[in-house]
Specification:
It is built from 15 helices and 13 strands. By secondary structure, the protein is α/β, with parallel strands linked by helices. Helix 13 packs antiparallel against helix 14.
């Protein structure tokens, strides 16, 4: 009975201990004018595969150091060509990236530059977007002087996180000819990440309790930096005067494909800019790739539309239809997650768990010593609490290990766009069963301690501190809603 009561208390604590998660439905939907993504206008342009492509590696001197860049240009094309520099997202940083995209553009007549990302201002915990923008501005200026390039027609291409940097460069350099934003998060990473996690987890069919972990995980201050997750690109987008091409794939579950596009359109309109083109590609992923013959390749339509839009400027800047392609879907609003309380923000929860684990380990070791007998006398006389002390420590650690394994497994499935009902549902049930067993073992330890009293000295200190450590770890599990809650049921 005591175990049941404690489990219910822990379940209620988990419900009220942190911010909840219940995002609003996103109702302001976008309906494409046509499913045909072709760029309008009567202007004639060359399609991809018109020219052979020459590829060269150069070194560009920047304030961030010497950066290698790969320049691709059409062979035997007459006259000066428009050009574009590519800006990396989170997953790439070398000049060898964007091979399919840059080659497709170059084969249509657009000179492309893919440069190294300066990593001295970029890490997992710290990112200086201003410094990144400066390095890309220097690459853009270098490309304007490149042989065969029309300096008045050099634009920027930002993919994913790179779509934060492209508006910064365009705002700082009015002579940037155009802006291409591909799979743009638009909203701060904290909000975009919350929506992505929600979308992935709902798609996998995880229990509702696990969704409540979203704001508790990313809503507060993160240890070690991560200030960039609150970066707002909106003020820079509001300064864009250049034509903007916005591209998303409907197979991209990580981006606010409707809310983000609407935000870009609204932001540039602040400056009186209505020169935008929005395209959605059926089934395309974050990099506008689709599965063809068993491998991922740049969507042919995306390559054709991108090259035609650049080559046809200014005629294609706002050519009808401005919004076209497959019907995008965004069920929920990307919104600011709630803020966890002090005990679950920053380094505090890590410190609390380390202390709880340390006290648990001390109790476990003491229990082992208490089981050792010399001349039929225990080395440490715990008066019958040694075995419960060991069992409680092992049970709680196993419960935590199972929960961490479950989170990592679910994350791996989500990032791989896979589902596994047995793991998602069965794994969660196993975590709950192990967590309840852990409560039972701790309750058993408490009763054993009460029966053994009065204990004094080191044995008493050891058991009390161990119980406090175990209670801390159980409260930590409860914070992540592992225990069933009557409040949730009601």
């Amino acid at each position: 009975m005591t175990t049941i009561v404690v489990v219910l208390i822990l379940g209620m604590w988990g419900t009220v201990a942190g911010p909840g998660w219940s995002p609003d439905p996103y109702l302001n939907q976008i309906v494409p004018e046509t499913s045909d993504t072709a760029i309008g206008s009567s202007v004639t342009t060359d399609p991809p595969r018109t020219y052979e492509v020459d590829s060269e590696i150069h070194t560009v001197e920047t304030e961030a150091g010497d950066l290698e860049v790969t320049v691709r240009r059409p062979v035997d094309k007459r006259g000066l060509s428009p050009a574009v520099i590519f800006m990396h997202g989170t997953g790439t940083y070398r000049h060898t990236a964007f091979t399919q995209h840059a080659t497709a553009l170059a084969s249509a007549g657009v000179v492309t530059l893919v440069g190294d990302k300066p990593l001295d201002s970029y890490s997992t915990t710290e990112r200086d977007y201003g410094q990144l923008a400066s390095a890309y501005r220097e690459q853009w200026a270098w490309l304007r002087e490149f042989e065969g390039v029309d300096p008045s027609r050099v634009g920027v291409y930002g993919e994913s996180e790179g779509a934060f940097i492209a508006p910064m460069v365009a705002a700082a350099e009015p002579e940037v000819a155009f802006v291409v934003l591909v799979s743009s998060p638009v909203l701060p990473i904290r909000q975009q990440g919350a929506l992505a996690a929600d979308t992935y987890l709902r798609r996998m069919g995880v229990p509702e309790q696990l969704l409540q972990a979203i704001p508790r995980l990313i809503g507060g201050e993160l240890p070690g930096g991560f200030d960039y997750i609150d970066f707002d690109v909106g003020p820079y987008q509001e300064q864009i005067t250049q034509p903007v091409l916005i591209l998303y794939g409907t197979g991209d579950l990580s981006m606010p494909v409707i809310q983000g596009a609407q935000q870009i359109i609204d932001d540039i309109a602040t400056n009186g800019n209505t020169d935008y083109t929005l395209r959605y590609y059926e089934g395309a992923d974050h990099g506008l790739r689709v599965l063809e013959r068993g491998s991922l390749s740049l969507s042919a339509n995306a390559g054709e539309d991108l090259s035609r839009w650049i080559l046809g400027l200014p005629a294609t800047a706002s050519a009808d239809p401005q919004i076209a392609g497959a019907q995008p879907v965004q069920h929920f609003t990307a919104e600011e997650p709630g803020t966890p309380r002090w005990y679950a923000s920053g380094a505090t929860p890590i410190i609390i768990l380390i202390v709880g684990l340390a006290l648990t380990v001390v109790g476990f070791v003491a229990g082992l010593i208490g089981r050792i007998r010399v001349k039929k006398k225990p080395l440490l006389d715990l008066k019958g609490t040694a075995r419960p002390l060991i069992q409680a420590g092992v049970a709680v650690v196993i419960a935590w290990a199972a929960f961490i394994w479950y989170l990592l497994t679910v994350a791996d499935l989500a990032l791989s766009y896979e589902t596994d009902v047995l793991v998602v549902r069965g794994g969660w049930l196993a975590c709950q069963i192990l967590a309840i067993i852990a409560v039972g073992m701790v309750v058993r330890l408490v009763f054993a301690w009460l029966r053994a009293r009065p204990l004094t000295g080191f044995p008493h200190f050891t058991i009390v501190s161990s119980i406090l450590g175990l209670a801390t770890l159980l409260a930590g599990l409860a914070y992540w809603n592992v225990y069933p809650s009557l409040l949730t049921a009601l």
